[in-house]
What we know:
Low-confidence stretches: 1-69, 571-584
Structural class: mainly alpha
Strand content: under 5%
Distance between the termini: 129 Å
CATH class of the largest domain: Mainly Alpha
Helix content: over 70%
CATH superfamily of the largest domain: GLE1-like
Number of helices: 17
Number of strands: 0
CATH architecture of the largest domain: Alpha Horseshoe
Shape: elongated
Amino acid sequence: MRFCAPRSVSPSPVRGRRRSSSTFGLPSDSETDPSSDYSESDSDSESSISSSSSSDGEPISKALTPRASKRPAVEPRYIDENVATIRLHARHHDPYEEWERQTRKDSFRSAQKEQKDKQVQLYNLQERSHVQDKQRLAAVHAQQLAEVERILAGVKIDQQRAENFVQERTRTSNILLERVEKAIKLEEDKLNAKLDAERQAQEKIRREEELKQRLHQERLKQEQDRIQKAAEDAQRQKQEEKERQEAEVKAQADRAQKDKAAEDRKNVGLSSAYEDWRQARIDLIRLKMDPMKFVKDNMRSQWGAIRRQITSRISQLTNDPIVINRVSNEIYQLAKPNSGALPSQLYSAVLSSLAKAIILQAETEVTAEKRSAIPLAQTAYNLLSSLPQFTEIMYAKLTQRVGGWCIPTALPERDYDSRPWADEAEMKKVMGFRKSANGDDVETRADFATRVAGIMRVYFHILKIQPKQPLSPMWQTTRYWMWFARVLGEPRMLPTIAGAEIMYTALDVMGDQARDIWGQQFLKMLALIYQGVTSGLGSKQAFFIGGTSPEGKAARVRVQLEIERIMKGVSGSANGGNGFGMMT
Protein backbone atom coordinates (compact mmCIF):
# COMPACT_ATOMS: atom_id res chain seq x y z
CA MET A 1 0.00 0.00 0.00
CA ARG A 2 1.48 3.34 -1.03
CA PHE A 3 0.89 6.69 0.64
CA CYS A 4 1.20 10.05 -1.15
CA ALA A 5 1.80 13.27 0.74
CA PRO A 6 0.18 16.42 -0.74
CA ARG A 7 2.30 18.91 -2.49
CA SER A 8 2.76 22.36 -1.12
CA VAL A 9 0.00 24.85 -1.75
CA SER A 10 0.51 26.83 -4.92
CA PRO A 11 -1.21 30.17 -5.71
CA SER A 12 -1.31 29.38 -9.40
CA PRO A 13 -4.90 29.21 -10.65
CA VAL A 14 -3.95 26.74 -13.31
CA ARG A 15 -2.37 24.29 -10.89
CA GLY A 16 -5.24 24.85 -8.60
CA ARG A 17 -7.69 24.02 -11.32
CA ARG A 18 -5.71 20.99 -12.38
CA ARG A 19 -5.60 19.76 -8.86
CA SER A 20 -9.29 20.44 -8.33
CA SER A 21 -10.12 18.27 -11.31
CA SER A 22 -9.20 15.18 -9.26
CA THR A 23 -12.08 15.06 -6.89
CA PHE A 24 -12.56 11.26 -6.94
CA GLY A 25 -16.01 11.67 -8.66
CA LEU A 26 -17.16 14.70 -6.55
CA PRO A 27 -18.30 17.95 -8.25
CA SER A 28 -15.95 20.86 -7.86
CA ASP A 29 -17.21 24.33 -6.97
CA SER A 30 -14.43 25.92 -8.90
CA GLU A 31 -15.88 24.79 -12.23
CA THR A 32 -19.04 26.89 -11.73
CA ASP A 33 -17.55 29.71 -9.79
CA PRO A 34 -13.86 30.29 -10.34
CA SER A 35 -13.81 33.33 -8.23
CA SER A 36 -15.01 31.39 -5.31
CA ASP A 37 -11.97 29.07 -5.44
CA TYR A 38 -9.86 31.36 -3.53
CA SER A 39 -12.49 32.11 -0.91
CA GLU A 40 -13.32 28.42 -0.42
CA SER A 41 -9.74 27.47 -0.47
CA ASP A 42 -9.01 30.09 2.02
CA SER A 43 -11.84 29.04 4.23
CA ASP A 44 -10.98 25.37 3.87
CA SER A 45 -7.37 26.14 4.45
CA GLU A 46 -8.27 28.16 7.44
CA SER A 47 -10.51 25.42 8.76
CA SER A 48 -7.79 22.83 8.00
CA ILE A 49 -5.19 24.91 9.61
CA SER A 50 -7.52 25.55 12.50
CA SER A 51 -8.19 21.83 12.93
CA SER A 52 -4.51 21.06 12.55
CA SER A 53 -3.61 23.73 14.98
CA SER A 54 -6.28 22.56 17.36
CA SER A 55 -5.00 19.00 17.16
CA ASP A 56 -1.49 20.16 17.91
CA GLY A 57 -2.77 22.10 20.86
CA GLU A 58 -1.84 25.53 19.45
CA PRO A 59 -4.26 28.51 19.29
CA ILE A 60 -6.03 29.07 16.03
CA SER A 61 -5.07 32.69 16.00
CA LYS A 62 -1.38 31.69 15.85
CA ALA A 63 -1.99 29.25 12.98
CA LEU A 64 -3.72 31.84 10.85
CA THR A 65 -1.45 34.13 9.05
CA PRO A 66 -2.20 37.01 6.77
CA ARG A 67 -0.73 35.08 3.88
CA ALA A 68 -2.97 32.05 4.49
CA SER A 69 -6.04 34.17 4.44
CA LYS A 70 -5.20 35.29 0.95
CA ARG A 71 -5.07 31.71 -0.51
CA PRO A 72 -7.87 30.66 -2.89
CA ALA A 73 -10.79 28.84 -1.38
CA VAL A 74 -10.15 25.71 -3.44
CA GLU A 75 -6.73 25.02 -1.84
CA PRO A 76 -8.01 24.03 1.60
CA ARG A 77 -10.57 21.87 -0.02
CA TYR A 78 -7.87 20.19 -2.04
CA ILE A 79 -5.93 19.54 1.11
CA ASP A 80 -9.01 18.08 2.79
CA GLU A 81 -9.56 15.82 -0.18
CA ASN A 82 -5.96 14.58 -0.02
CA VAL A 83 -6.28 13.94 3.71
CA ALA A 84 -9.53 12.10 3.08
CA THR A 85 -7.83 10.12 0.31
CA ILE A 86 -4.98 9.17 2.65
CA ARG A 87 -7.45 8.13 5.32
CA LEU A 88 -9.42 6.12 2.76
CA HIS A 89 -6.27 4.41 1.55
CA ALA A 90 -5.24 3.70 5.14
CA ARG A 91 -8.58 2.04 5.87
CA HIS A 92 -9.04 0.45 2.43
CA HIS A 93 -8.77 -3.40 2.16
CA ASP A 94 -6.89 -4.21 -1.03
CA PRO A 95 -7.42 -7.92 -2.10
CA TYR A 96 -4.32 -7.91 -4.23
CA GLU A 97 -2.12 -6.67 -1.45
CA GLU A 98 -3.74 -9.22 0.89
CA TRP A 99 -3.11 -11.96 -1.69
CA GLU A 100 0.48 -10.79 -2.15
CA ARG A 101 1.03 -10.76 1.62
CA GLN A 102 -0.55 -14.22 2.02
CA THR A 103 1.54 -15.47 -0.90
CA ARG A 104 4.69 -14.25 0.84
CA LYS A 105 3.66 -16.06 4.04
CA ASP A 106 2.91 -19.29 2.18
CA SER A 107 6.19 -19.05 0.29
CA PHE A 108 8.02 -18.50 3.58
CA ARG A 109 6.27 -21.51 5.17
CA SER A 110 7.02 -23.68 2.12
CA ALA A 111 10.65 -22.59 2.13
CA GLN A 112 10.87 -23.18 5.88
CA LYS A 113 9.32 -26.68 5.56
CA GLU A 114 11.62 -27.52 2.65
CA GLN A 115 14.60 -26.35 4.69
CA LYS A 116 13.51 -28.49 7.66
CA ASP A 117 13.08 -31.53 5.40
CA LYS A 118 16.52 -30.96 3.92
CA GLN A 119 17.97 -30.61 7.43
CA VAL A 120 16.28 -33.86 8.52
CA GLN A 121 17.66 -35.61 5.45
CA LEU A 122 21.06 -34.13 6.18
CA TYR A 123 20.90 -35.28 9.84
CA ASN A 124 19.80 -38.79 8.78
CA LEU A 125 22.59 -38.92 6.23
CA GLN A 126 25.10 -37.81 8.87
CA GLU A 127 23.73 -40.38 11.37
CA ARG A 128 24.03 -43.18 8.81
CA SER A 129 27.52 -42.02 8.01
CA HIS A 130 28.43 -42.01 11.72
CA VAL A 131 26.96 -45.50 12.17
CA GLN A 132 28.90 -46.79 9.18
CA ASP A 133 32.07 -45.16 10.53
CA LYS A 134 31.50 -46.74 13.95
CA GLN A 135 30.88 -50.16 12.42
CA ARG A 136 33.96 -49.82 10.30
CA LEU A 137 36.05 -48.72 13.32
CA ALA A 138 34.58 -51.55 15.42
CA ALA A 139 35.51 -54.06 12.72
CA VAL A 140 39.02 -52.60 12.52
CA HIS A 141 39.34 -52.67 16.34
CA ALA A 142 38.09 -56.27 16.51
CA GLN A 143 40.59 -57.28 13.86
CA GLN A 144 43.38 -55.45 15.67
CA LEU A 145 42.32 -57.00 19.01
CA ALA A 146 42.34 -60.48 17.51
CA GLU A 147 45.78 -59.79 16.08
CA VAL A 148 47.05 -58.53 19.47
CA GLU A 149 45.58 -61.55 21.26
CA ARG A 150 47.20 -63.86 18.75
CA ILE A 151 50.54 -62.11 19.28
CA LEU A 152 50.11 -62.23 23.08
CA ALA A 153 49.22 -65.93 22.93
CA GLY A 154 52.39 -66.55 20.97
CA VAL A 155 54.42 -64.48 23.44
CA LYS A 156 52.84 -66.35 26.38
CA ILE A 157 53.69 -69.71 24.81
CA ASP A 158 57.26 -68.55 24.20
CA GLN A 159 57.48 -67.25 27.77
CA GLN A 160 56.13 -70.53 29.16
CA ARG A 161 58.66 -72.46 27.13
CA ALA A 162 61.42 -70.20 28.38
CA GLU A 163 60.26 -70.60 31.98
CA ASN A 164 60.09 -74.38 31.62
CA PHE A 165 63.55 -74.37 30.13
CA VAL A 166 64.90 -72.17 32.95
CA GLN A 167 63.20 -74.32 35.60
CA GLU A 168 64.61 -77.48 34.05
CA ARG A 169 68.07 -75.98 33.95
CA THR A 170 67.69 -74.74 37.51
CA ARG A 171 66.57 -78.16 38.71
CA THR A 172 69.48 -79.81 36.90
CA SER A 173 71.88 -77.26 38.32
CA ASN A 174 70.51 -77.80 41.82
CA ILE A 175 70.92 -81.55 41.49
CA LEU A 176 74.49 -81.14 40.28
CA LEU A 177 75.20 -78.58 42.99
CA GLU A 178 73.76 -80.85 45.64
CA ARG A 179 75.92 -83.72 44.43
CA VAL A 180 78.99 -81.52 44.40
CA GLU A 181 78.23 -80.25 47.89
CA LYS A 182 77.73 -83.79 49.14
CA ALA A 183 81.03 -84.85 47.62
CA ILE A 184 82.80 -81.84 49.10
CA LYS A 185 81.13 -82.48 52.45
CA LEU A 186 82.22 -86.11 52.37
CA GLU A 187 85.80 -85.18 51.59
CA GLU A 188 85.78 -82.51 54.27
CA ASP A 189 84.42 -85.00 56.79
CA LYS A 190 87.13 -87.50 55.88
CA LEU A 191 89.83 -84.84 56.16
CA ASN A 192 88.43 -83.53 59.45
CA ALA A 193 88.20 -87.05 60.83
CA LYS A 194 91.82 -87.69 59.86
CA LEU A 195 92.98 -84.40 61.38
CA ASP A 196 90.95 -85.06 64.52
CA ALA A 197 92.50 -88.51 64.86
CA GLU A 198 95.98 -87.08 64.50
CA ARG A 199 95.19 -84.27 66.91
CA GLN A 200 93.72 -86.68 69.42
CA ALA A 201 96.76 -88.96 69.16
CA GLN A 202 99.12 -86.05 69.77
CA GLU A 203 96.92 -84.76 72.58
CA LYS A 204 96.84 -88.24 74.10
CA ILE A 205 100.65 -88.48 74.03
CA ARG A 206 100.99 -85.04 75.59
CA ARG A 207 98.45 -85.84 78.29
CA GLU A 208 100.20 -89.11 79.08
CA GLU A 209 103.50 -87.31 79.50
CA GLU A 210 101.92 -84.63 81.66
CA LEU A 211 100.16 -87.32 83.65
CA LYS A 212 103.37 -89.18 84.25
CA GLN A 213 105.09 -86.04 85.47
CA ARG A 214 102.15 -85.05 87.63
CA LEU A 215 101.85 -88.55 89.12
CA HIS A 216 105.54 -88.58 89.92
CA GLN A 217 105.28 -85.22 91.65
CA GLU A 218 102.12 -86.24 93.45
CA ARG A 219 103.70 -89.49 94.64
CA LEU A 220 106.57 -87.56 96.09
CA LYS A 221 104.26 -85.09 97.75
CA GLN A 222 101.95 -87.81 99.00
CA GLU A 223 104.85 -89.70 100.44
CA GLN A 224 105.85 -86.60 102.32
CA ASP A 225 102.35 -85.86 103.54
CA ARG A 226 101.21 -89.45 104.13
CA ILE A 227 102.63 -89.82 107.57
CA GLN A 228 101.50 -86.33 108.63
CA LYS A 229 97.92 -86.78 107.44
CA ALA A 230 97.45 -90.43 108.33
CA ALA A 231 95.77 -89.72 111.66
CA GLU A 232 93.64 -86.92 110.24
CA ASP A 233 92.56 -89.07 107.28
CA ALA A 234 91.59 -91.92 109.55
CA GLN A 235 89.49 -89.65 111.73
CA ARG A 236 87.88 -87.96 108.73
CA GLN A 237 87.12 -91.26 107.06
CA LYS A 238 85.34 -92.47 110.14
CA GLN A 239 83.24 -89.32 110.26
CA GLU A 240 82.47 -89.45 106.52
CA GLU A 241 81.58 -93.12 106.78
CA LYS A 242 79.14 -92.36 109.54
CA GLU A 243 77.53 -89.48 107.62
CA ARG A 244 77.40 -91.58 104.44
CA GLN A 245 75.65 -94.39 106.23
CA GLU A 246 73.09 -91.99 107.71
CA ALA A 247 72.51 -90.32 104.33
CA GLU A 248 72.21 -93.70 102.65
CA VAL A 249 69.62 -94.85 105.19
CA LYS A 250 67.65 -91.66 104.68
CA ALA A 251 67.95 -91.91 100.89
CA GLN A 252 66.82 -95.51 100.97
CA ALA A 253 63.78 -94.54 103.01
CA ASP A 254 62.97 -91.69 100.61
CA ARG A 255 63.47 -93.93 97.58
CA ALA A 256 61.29 -96.58 99.11
CA GLN A 257 58.56 -94.05 99.76
CA LYS A 258 58.86 -92.60 96.25
CA ASP A 259 58.97 -96.06 94.71
CA LYS A 260 55.87 -97.06 96.62
CA ALA A 261 54.05 -93.91 95.50
CA ALA A 262 55.22 -94.43 91.92
CA GLU A 263 54.16 -98.06 92.06
CA ASP A 264 50.73 -97.04 93.33
CA ARG A 265 50.33 -94.48 90.55
CA LYS A 266 51.57 -96.98 88.00
CA ASN A 267 49.05 -99.54 89.16
CA VAL A 268 46.20 -97.13 88.50
CA GLY A 269 47.79 -95.76 85.31
CA LEU A 270 48.76 -92.32 86.73
CA SER A 271 51.97 -90.35 86.87
CA SER A 272 53.08 -87.38 88.92
CA ALA A 273 53.37 -83.89 87.52
CA TYR A 274 57.17 -84.01 87.88
CA GLU A 275 57.33 -87.33 86.03
CA ASP A 276 55.30 -85.88 83.17
CA TRP A 277 57.52 -82.82 83.01
CA ARG A 278 60.70 -84.91 83.22
CA GLN A 279 59.53 -87.26 80.46
CA ALA A 280 58.59 -84.33 78.19
CA ARG A 281 61.97 -82.71 78.93
CA ILE A 282 63.80 -85.96 78.10
CA ASP A 283 61.86 -86.34 74.84
CA LEU A 284 62.68 -82.76 73.89
CA ILE A 285 66.42 -83.08 74.61
CA ARG A 286 66.57 -86.42 72.80
CA LEU A 287 64.76 -84.89 69.81
CA LYS A 288 67.23 -81.98 69.63
CA MET A 289 70.38 -84.03 70.12
CA ASP A 290 69.73 -86.99 67.83
CA PRO A 291 67.35 -86.58 64.85
CA MET A 292 67.31 -82.78 64.57
CA LYS A 293 71.08 -82.45 64.66
CA PHE A 294 71.50 -85.22 62.07
CA VAL A 295 68.88 -83.76 59.74
CA LYS A 296 70.30 -80.23 59.97
CA ASP A 297 73.75 -81.52 59.07
CA ASN A 298 72.83 -84.00 56.31
CA MET A 299 69.22 -83.54 55.09
CA ARG A 300 68.56 -79.84 55.52
CA SER A 301 67.24 -79.19 51.98
CA GLN A 302 64.70 -82.04 52.00
CA TRP A 303 63.60 -81.19 55.53
CA GLY A 304 63.27 -77.48 54.65
CA ALA A 305 61.05 -78.25 51.63
CA ILE A 306 58.66 -80.38 53.71
CA ARG A 307 58.65 -77.83 56.53
CA ARG A 308 57.66 -74.99 54.18
CA GLN A 309 54.80 -77.05 52.76
CA ILE A 310 53.54 -77.84 56.26
CA THR A 311 53.63 -74.15 57.25
CA SER A 312 51.72 -73.07 54.13
CA ARG A 313 49.01 -75.68 54.68
CA ILE A 314 48.56 -74.87 58.37
CA SER A 315 48.06 -71.21 57.42
CA GLN A 316 45.23 -72.21 55.00
CA LEU A 317 43.01 -73.65 57.76
CA THR A 318 39.42 -72.42 58.07
CA ASN A 319 36.51 -73.65 60.18
CA ASP A 320 35.27 -75.90 57.39
CA PRO A 321 35.28 -79.72 57.79
CA ILE A 322 36.21 -80.19 54.13
CA VAL A 323 39.20 -77.86 54.43
CA ILE A 324 40.27 -79.44 57.75
CA ASN A 325 40.17 -82.97 56.29
CA ARG A 326 41.98 -81.85 53.14
CA VAL A 327 44.78 -80.14 55.06
CA SER A 328 45.08 -83.11 57.46
CA ASN A 329 45.38 -85.56 54.55
CA GLU A 330 47.94 -83.38 52.77
CA ILE A 331 50.11 -83.08 55.89
CA TYR A 332 49.76 -86.82 56.51
CA GLN A 333 51.00 -87.47 52.96
CA LEU A 334 53.99 -85.20 53.60
CA ALA A 335 54.94 -87.15 56.73
CA LYS A 336 53.94 -90.60 55.38
CA PRO A 337 54.29 -90.36 51.58
CA ASN A 338 52.97 -93.14 49.35
CA SER A 339 56.29 -93.35 47.55
CA GLY A 340 57.99 -94.73 50.64
CA ALA A 341 58.59 -94.08 54.30
CA LEU A 342 60.90 -91.23 55.28
CA PRO A 343 64.11 -91.99 57.16
CA SER A 344 63.55 -92.17 60.90
CA GLN A 345 65.60 -89.04 61.68
CA LEU A 346 63.86 -87.05 58.93
CA TYR A 347 60.44 -88.34 60.06
CA SER A 348 61.08 -87.16 63.64
CA ALA A 349 62.30 -83.78 62.34
CA VAL A 350 59.16 -83.41 60.20
CA LEU A 351 56.94 -84.20 63.22
CA SER A 352 58.86 -81.61 65.26
CA SER A 353 58.33 -78.99 62.52
CA LEU A 354 54.63 -79.91 62.33
CA ALA A 355 54.19 -79.47 66.09
CA LYS A 356 56.04 -76.14 65.98
CA ALA A 357 53.89 -74.91 63.06
CA ILE A 358 50.67 -75.73 64.95
CA ILE A 359 51.89 -74.02 68.12
CA LEU A 360 53.11 -70.89 66.29
CA GLN A 361 49.80 -70.67 64.45
CA ALA A 362 48.05 -70.82 67.82
CA GLU A 363 50.29 -68.03 69.15
CA THR A 364 49.47 -65.69 66.26
CA GLU A 365 45.87 -66.42 65.22
CA VAL A 366 44.21 -67.74 68.39
CA THR A 367 45.46 -64.76 70.39
CA ALA A 368 43.60 -62.47 67.95
CA GLU A 369 40.54 -64.65 67.26
CA LYS A 370 39.46 -67.41 69.69
CA ARG A 371 37.37 -69.28 67.11
CA SER A 372 40.44 -70.05 65.01
CA ALA A 373 41.50 -72.56 67.67
CA ILE A 374 38.72 -75.00 66.63
CA PRO A 375 40.03 -75.95 63.13
CA LEU A 376 43.60 -75.92 64.43
CA ALA A 377 42.68 -78.31 67.26
CA GLN A 378 40.71 -80.60 64.93
CA THR A 379 43.65 -80.81 62.51
CA ALA A 380 46.07 -81.50 65.38
CA TYR A 381 43.76 -84.24 66.69
CA ASN A 382 43.56 -85.87 63.24
CA LEU A 383 47.34 -85.99 63.03
CA LEU A 384 47.78 -87.12 66.67
CA SER A 385 45.49 -90.08 66.03
CA SER A 386 47.13 -91.09 62.73
CA LEU A 387 50.88 -90.30 62.89
CA PRO A 388 53.02 -92.57 65.11
CA GLN A 389 55.26 -90.86 67.72
CA PHE A 390 53.52 -87.54 67.11
CA THR A 391 51.80 -87.54 70.53
CA GLU A 392 55.14 -87.59 72.41
CA ILE A 393 56.84 -85.06 70.11
CA MET A 394 53.83 -82.70 70.14
CA TYR A 395 53.67 -82.81 73.96
CA ALA A 396 57.43 -82.19 74.22
CA LYS A 397 57.21 -79.14 71.90
CA LEU A 398 54.15 -77.92 73.79
CA THR A 399 56.11 -78.12 77.06
CA GLN A 400 58.96 -76.22 75.41
CA ARG A 401 56.70 -73.31 74.35
CA VAL A 402 54.51 -72.99 77.48
CA GLY A 403 56.78 -74.39 80.18
CA GLY A 404 55.01 -76.43 82.82
CA TRP A 405 51.55 -74.93 82.20
CA CYS A 406 50.36 -77.84 80.04
CA ILE A 407 51.02 -80.36 82.87
CA PRO A 408 50.75 -78.14 85.07
CA THR A 409 53.74 -77.99 87.40
CA ALA A 410 56.15 -75.38 88.68
CA LEU A 411 59.77 -75.41 87.54
CA PRO A 412 61.81 -77.82 89.71
CA GLU A 413 65.04 -76.78 91.37
CA ARG A 414 67.14 -79.01 89.08
CA ASP A 415 66.95 -80.25 85.51
CA TYR A 416 65.79 -83.74 84.55
CA ASP A 417 69.38 -85.06 84.99
CA SER A 418 69.74 -83.50 88.49
CA ARG A 419 71.94 -80.76 87.03
CA PRO A 420 71.40 -77.34 88.65
CA TRP A 421 70.24 -74.55 86.40
CA ALA A 422 73.06 -72.48 84.91
CA ASP A 423 71.46 -69.07 85.42
CA GLU A 424 68.13 -67.25 85.48
CA ALA A 425 68.09 -66.94 81.67
CA GLU A 426 68.07 -70.73 81.32
CA MET A 427 65.31 -71.01 83.90
CA LYS A 428 63.20 -68.43 82.04
CA LYS A 429 63.69 -70.31 78.79
CA VAL A 430 62.65 -73.65 80.30
CA MET A 431 59.61 -71.93 81.86
CA GLY A 432 58.47 -70.94 78.36
CA PHE A 433 59.43 -67.26 78.25
CA ARG A 434 60.56 -65.96 74.86
CA LYS A 435 62.51 -62.95 73.71
CA SER A 436 60.63 -59.66 73.54
CA ALA A 437 59.82 -57.86 70.30
CA ASN A 438 63.09 -55.88 70.33
CA GLY A 439 65.08 -59.03 71.19
CA ASP A 440 66.88 -57.45 74.15
CA ASP A 441 64.95 -59.00 77.01
CA VAL A 442 62.34 -61.66 77.70
CA GLU A 443 58.67 -60.91 77.21
CA THR A 444 56.57 -59.46 80.02
CA ARG A 445 54.40 -61.67 82.20
CA ALA A 446 51.25 -60.20 80.63
CA ASP A 447 52.47 -60.98 77.09
CA PHE A 448 53.54 -64.43 78.26
CA ALA A 449 50.09 -65.10 79.72
CA THR A 450 48.31 -64.00 76.54
CA ARG A 451 50.54 -66.10 74.29
CA VAL A 452 50.36 -69.22 76.48
CA ALA A 453 46.57 -68.87 76.82
CA GLY A 454 46.25 -68.97 73.01
CA ILE A 455 48.30 -72.19 72.83
CA MET A 456 46.44 -73.79 75.75
CA ARG A 457 43.11 -72.97 74.11
CA VAL A 458 44.08 -75.28 71.25
CA TYR A 459 45.19 -77.93 73.78
CA PHE A 460 41.87 -77.78 75.65
CA HIS A 461 39.95 -77.99 72.38
CA ILE A 462 41.88 -81.19 71.59
CA LEU A 463 40.93 -82.61 75.00
CA LYS A 464 37.31 -81.69 74.26
CA ILE A 465 37.14 -83.93 71.18
CA GLN A 466 35.67 -87.36 71.84
CA PRO A 467 38.25 -89.79 70.36
CA LYS A 468 37.25 -92.67 68.11
CA GLN A 469 40.31 -94.55 69.35
CA PRO A 470 42.23 -93.98 72.61
CA LEU A 471 45.18 -91.59 72.47
CA SER A 472 48.12 -91.19 74.82
CA PRO A 473 47.20 -90.22 78.39
CA MET A 474 48.37 -86.63 77.96
CA TRP A 475 45.79 -86.12 75.17
CA GLN A 476 42.77 -87.74 76.81
CA THR A 477 39.74 -85.89 78.19
CA THR A 478 40.62 -86.91 81.77
CA ARG A 479 43.63 -84.59 81.53
CA TYR A 480 41.20 -81.69 81.85
CA TRP A 481 40.21 -82.76 85.38
CA MET A 482 43.84 -83.56 86.23
CA TRP A 483 44.91 -80.10 85.04
CA PHE A 484 42.56 -78.33 87.48
CA ALA A 485 43.47 -80.72 90.31
CA ARG A 486 47.19 -80.08 89.82
CA VAL A 487 46.98 -76.32 89.33
CA LEU A 488 44.91 -75.90 92.50
CA GLY A 489 47.66 -77.82 94.34
CA GLU A 490 50.41 -75.47 93.15
CA PRO A 491 50.40 -72.31 95.30
CA ARG A 492 53.28 -70.89 93.24
CA MET A 493 51.27 -70.94 89.99
CA LEU A 494 47.86 -69.67 91.12
CA PRO A 495 48.85 -66.05 92.01
CA THR A 496 50.29 -65.44 88.52
CA ILE A 497 48.63 -63.71 85.57
CA ALA A 498 49.04 -66.83 83.46
CA GLY A 499 47.28 -68.92 86.12
CA ALA A 500 44.08 -66.88 85.96
CA GLU A 501 44.25 -66.38 82.16
CA ILE A 502 44.71 -70.10 81.38
CA MET A 503 42.06 -71.05 83.93
CA TYR A 504 39.58 -68.75 82.18
CA THR A 505 40.56 -70.28 78.83
CA ALA A 506 39.95 -73.82 80.16
CA LEU A 507 36.51 -72.90 81.53
CA ASP A 508 35.55 -71.05 78.34
CA VAL A 509 36.46 -74.02 76.14
CA MET A 510 35.18 -77.00 78.13
CA GLY A 511 33.43 -75.73 81.26
CA ASP A 512 29.91 -76.82 80.30
CA GLN A 513 31.06 -80.22 79.06
CA ALA A 514 33.13 -80.83 82.22
CA ARG A 515 30.09 -79.97 84.35
CA ASP A 516 28.09 -82.60 82.51
CA ILE A 517 30.88 -85.21 82.75
CA TRP A 518 32.03 -84.89 86.38
CA GLY A 519 28.87 -83.41 87.86
CA GLN A 520 28.95 -82.57 91.57
CA GLN A 521 32.71 -83.03 91.93
CA PHE A 522 33.39 -80.46 89.25
CA LEU A 523 30.94 -78.06 90.89
CA LYS A 524 32.91 -78.38 94.15
CA MET A 525 36.08 -77.53 92.22
CA LEU A 526 34.33 -74.50 90.68
CA ALA A 527 33.32 -73.39 94.18
CA LEU A 528 36.96 -73.51 95.27
CA ILE A 529 38.05 -71.52 92.22
CA TYR A 530 35.24 -69.03 92.80
CA GLN A 531 36.52 -68.52 96.33
CA GLY A 532 40.03 -67.95 94.96
CA VAL A 533 38.88 -65.17 92.63
CA THR A 534 36.49 -63.46 95.05
CA SER A 535 37.73 -63.80 98.65
CA GLY A 536 41.11 -65.53 98.26
CA LEU A 537 42.67 -68.87 99.16
CA GLY A 538 44.91 -69.91 102.01
CA SER A 539 44.37 -70.08 105.76
CA LYS A 540 47.20 -67.92 107.14
CA GLN A 541 47.88 -65.47 104.31
CA ALA A 542 45.14 -65.40 101.71
CA PHE A 543 46.05 -64.84 98.08
CA PHE A 544 43.94 -64.27 94.97
CA ILE A 545 44.11 -66.31 91.82
CA GLY A 546 45.82 -64.10 89.24
CA GLY A 547 47.65 -61.90 91.73
CA THR A 548 47.20 -58.20 92.37
CA SER A 549 48.43 -56.72 89.08
CA PRO A 550 45.89 -54.96 86.80
CA GLU A 551 46.18 -57.76 84.20
CA GLY A 552 45.70 -60.38 86.92
CA LYS A 553 42.62 -58.62 88.27
CA ALA A 554 41.09 -58.46 84.79
CA ALA A 555 41.74 -62.18 84.24
CA ARG A 556 40.29 -62.94 87.69
CA VAL A 557 37.07 -61.10 86.80
CA ARG A 558 36.81 -63.12 83.57
CA VAL A 559 37.17 -66.35 85.56
CA GLN A 560 34.41 -65.22 87.95
CA LEU A 561 32.02 -64.34 85.12
CA GLU A 562 32.73 -67.62 83.33
CA ILE A 563 32.00 -69.65 86.47
CA GLU A 564 28.73 -67.77 86.96
CA ARG A 565 27.82 -68.50 83.34
CA ILE A 566 28.51 -72.20 83.80
CA MET A 567 26.47 -72.31 86.98
CA LYS A 568 23.43 -70.89 85.16
CA GLY A 569 22.98 -74.34 83.69
CA VAL A 570 22.64 -75.84 87.17
CA SER A 571 19.31 -75.70 88.94
CA GLY A 572 19.94 -73.27 91.80
CA SER A 573 16.59 -71.78 92.58
CA ALA A 574 16.79 -72.84 96.23
CA ASN A 575 20.15 -71.07 96.62
CA GLY A 576 19.33 -67.67 95.14
CA GLY A 577 20.14 -68.70 91.55
CA ASN A 578 23.95 -68.79 91.83
CA GLY A 579 24.22 -72.55 92.26
CA PHE A 580 26.94 -72.43 94.94
CA GLY A 581 24.73 -73.10 97.93
CA MET A 582 24.73 -76.84 97.24
CA MET A 583 28.55 -76.96 97.38
CA THR A 584 29.10 -75.46 100.82
